[in-house]
Amino acid sequence: MCLAIPGKIIEIINQLDDTFRDGKVSFGGINKQVNLRMVPEANVGDYVLVHVGVAISVVDEEEAQKVFSYLKEMGEVDELKS
Amino acid sequence: MPQPEKIALQCPMPKFDFDMITMGHGSGGLLTHRLLQSGVFDILKNDLLDQQHDGASFHLNGNVAFSTDSYVISPVFFPGGNIGDLAVNGTVNDLAMCGAQAQYLSLAFIIEEGLLMEEFWRILVSIKEAATRANVKIVTGDTKVVEKGKGDKIFVNTSGIGFIHENASIHHRNITSGDKIIVSGNIATHGMAIMSVRQGLEFESDIKTDSTNLNHTVMKLLDEFGYGIKFLRDPTRGGVASVLNEIAELTQLGYHLDQKLIPVDERVDSACEMLGLDPLYVANEGIFMAVVSAAVAGQFVEALRNDPNGSNASVIGQVSELQPGKVTMRSRIGGTCIVSYLTGEQLPRIC
Amino acid sequence: MKYLSEYRDPELVEDFLREIHRITTKPWTLMEICGGQTHSLVKNGILEMLPKKINMVHGPGCPVCVTSVSVIDEAVHLAFRPKTILCSFGDMLRVPGSSKSLLEAKAEGADVRILYSPLEAVQLAKDNPDKQVVFFAVGFETTAPANALSVIQAHHLQLKNYSILASHVLVPPAMEAILGDHENRIDAFLAAGHVCTIMGMEEYYPIAEKYQCPIVVTGFEPVDLLQGILMAVQQLEAGTYKLENQYSRSVQRAGNRMAMETIHEVFSISDRAWRGLGNIPQSGYEVNDRYKNFNARLKFNLNLRAAEENKDCISGQIMKGLKKPRQCPNFGTRCVPEHPLGAPMVSSEGACAAYYHYSNASVNEPIEG
């Protein structure tokens, strides 16, 4: 739960130690320094979900698109069944 | 009357033999005299102020509006402005919301000792610039200094007098069902500019306060639309939602907004999303809300869009007899919700 | 904003709604767990757009609402400690304790600061070595990694003046408490998308199985919520009770391994008192032994008397979905956001406050049968 919004990593600020691995994340034109420890696989250009200053996941682009084709695919499945 | 262009004043700070304000400067003695003479009076000079009486004397002929406001904003300097221009614009705008062209302002400071002269000077320069843009004279004032810890750097009060436009008939009792609700520009900008530098919540952005004087814009609209303008208000603290709730309660009519018509700058919107704030409740300083008759609403918006202060003007809703006393909003996806009164300060949320 | 605006598309919303209306033949009661989901449903006006047969009830998914009065009292007590900075998320400030809220404490001179992130509290501790900085670490599992990380960072920096007052609550025990209640009428759950982003989905399979209750892990935007509702109703109409994932762009079955490791580094599972639901065993996180120096309760020897909940507040019944806010005799009269009887009216995510602020009178009333 809780408010987490998607932003794009535009810079990785330091990688001295993963406890303090930060990124500069852009949310539609505003930037915030965000901790990236929980998303070690994330790189510049990736979109991450950020909750209270910490990235909690990398947005999966392929899965993100599935929502838009869900109904259409369901319709096709129903057609096949009938 | 055409709005003066922004004046970049070459106003170098005079040489003071002190670099910060102390209790002595408020005591009324020599230090006060020096501060005022080689600082405040010089930069704000005009024929009334130069007389240096306890109060300004002048003749008034006509219907007059009188307004006051105090400014306690922190931080004192914020992206795009400071407490000085805020204080001038704020009272000039309050008068404009009464349909009045500001003429004379009073200016009072309560300064916490330790304020740097450099900072005080920057504020004075901003006050001068804002007063020149608004074409208003500062004719009387006061300076007090309080001990460290008893203030918050500087508090400012401005009171203003202005002549009411002959075409103005601005009162919530004029609002009727069918009237349109209009905002003159993007909402929530000022509040988010402040938020961006607020300790604990700060973020990096280009968002600057929208604080500006709206009097010339409003006078032009009154020239053209007169009685078609039923109501004006600048939605400062509490935002658009608070103003609407207030008049909904007073008029016992329903105020219905359409979310997709409400103009918000993209960066401001993103900042609100990040902090979990609703733009409808965030403070504004450089826009106004108008309730106008349906017959003139279209032309009113067009006239505003041709004005530098109104390029994002938009009809955002309308008044009806449905749900009297309430403010409602049709969401982007087509559902409806109530837009209620803010309970205290809007707080950023995590869930 | 990318990955946000697309899920607010009005046409897609209409398509999902049409499909939900088409397939719903019987009355069903669905619970969304998360306060953020409640907020989105009410604010977007989705509740009235659903078929009348679908009864949405709002679960205990607002960590602010379920924080017990005693914990607020602990926070207020710490805030009044000399040379102490009590830092908190904004939502917590207005929640009433036994005698006052943090906001009232602030007005009386306590140094209470609103922060966006617990990591900023660590910075504050670094910048103020002469003060004790306590972070009020509230939240569900979603917030636990950030709160835990703040302790790990403070440990790395060898800070002696940082600690957290932990009040974490866990979703699966709450769901079991609701489903196990003999008055339970929930047919399906929309599980919390961001909690599951952290914790994954494993804990929910046994719940779906044991209570034969479909669970759909759902996001927060209108399209997410409607797809989640559709998936739940499809199952109900078909008589299945599987665990499904609507929020797959963020949630993976295994969750976020690094985040879970971070949580377990600092926290251990403990019993927890939930405001409105009572004591639920093994339903919270407390700072573990390894990091006991960062546990504000131990550090400051907190031993406050357990506080009484306001007897007139029916938040427990609301959070179990047994009553709607408007059915509370005090709703909108004795209990309003300015003077709330309990937390669901204070926090903007609480069901009562959401209804009070946003809901039209014509909201779905409970369907009997």
Question: How does this model look, in words?
Answer:
The complex is a heterotrimer of chains A (82), B (351) and C (369). Helices cover 26% and strands 39% of the residues of chain A. The model of chain A has no long low-confidence stretch (mean pLDDT 89). Chain A contains one helix and five strands; from the N terminus they run E-E-E-E-E-H. The radius of gyration of chain A is 17 Å and the shape is elongated. In chain A, strands 3-2-1-4-5 form a five-stranded antiparallel sheet, with no helix packed on it. By secondary structure, chain B is of the alpha+beta class. Chain B is built from eight helices and 13 strands. In chain B, the strands form three sheets. In chain B, strands 8-10-7-11-9-12-13 form a seven-stranded mixed sheet, with helices on both faces. Chain B is globular and about 65 Å long. Chain C is an alpha/beta fold and 369 residues long. In chain C, the strands form two sheets. Chain C has a six-stranded mixed sheet, with helices on both faces. Classes of the chains: A alpha+beta (82), B alpha+beta (351), C alpha/beta (369). Chain B binds chain C through residues 199-201, 269-270, 273, 275-276, 328, 330-340, 343-344, 347-351, and chain C through 1, 4, 8-10, 13-14, 34-36, 42-49, 61-64, 87, 89-91, 93-94, 103, 113-116, 120, 138-140, 143, 222, 337-338, 347-349, 356-360.
User: First CA to last CA of chain B: what distance?
Assistant: 50 Å
Most extensive interface: pair and counts? A-C, 36 and 54 residues
Q: Describe the strand arrangement of the main beta sheet of chain C, using strand numbers.
A: 4-3-5-6-11-10
How many beta-strand segments of chain B?
13
**Helical percent range of chain C?**
25-40%
Largest sheet data of chain B: 7 strands, mixed
**What is the multimeric organization of the chains shown?**
heterotrimer
> Could you name the ranges of chain C where pLDDT drops below 50 across 5 or more consecutive residues?
361-369
Question: Mean pLDDT of chain C, rounded to whole units?
Answer: 90
**How many alpha or pi helices of chain C?**
16
How large is the radius of gyration of chain B?
A: 21 Å
Model regions low in confidence, pLDDT < 50 over at least 5 residues of chain B: 1-8
The arrangement of helices and strands of chain C along the chain is HEHHEHHEHEHEHEHEHHEHEHEEHHH
Question: How would the blueprint of this fold be written?
Answer:
The complex is a heterotrimer of chains A (82), B (351) and C (369).
Chain A: E1 5-14, E2 22-27, E3 30-35, E4 47-51, E5 54-58, H1 61-81
Antiparallel strand pairs in A: 1-2, 1-4, 2-3, 4-5
Chain B: H1 30-44, E1 64-71, E2 77-78, E3 81-82, H2 83-97, E4 100-112, H3 117-134, E5 137-146, E6 154-164, E7 180-183, H4 189-195, H5 215-225, E8 229-233, H6 239-251, E9 254-258, H7 266-275, E10 289-292, H8 294-305, E11 314-320, E12 327-330, E13 336-338
Parallel strand pairs in B: 4-5, 9-12
Antiparallel strand pairs in B: 1-6, 2-3, 4-6, 7-10, 7-11, 8-10, 9-11, 12-13
Helix pairs in contact in B: 1-3, 2-3
Chain C: H1 10-23, E1 28-32, H2 35-43, H3 46-49, E2 54-58, H4 63-66, H5 69-79, E3 84-88, H6 102-107, E4 112-114, H7 118-127, E5 132-139, H8 144-156, E6 162-169, H9 171-180, E7 188-192, H10 193-199, H11 205-211, E8 215-218, H12 222-238, E9 243-245, H13 257-266, E10 267-274, E11 278-287, H14 296-299, H15 315-319, H16 351-358
Parallel strand pairs in C: 1-2, 1-7, 3-4, 3-5, 5-6, 7-8, 8-9
Antiparallel strand pairs in C: 6-11, 10-11
Helix pairs in contact in C: 1-12, 2-16, 7-8, 8-13
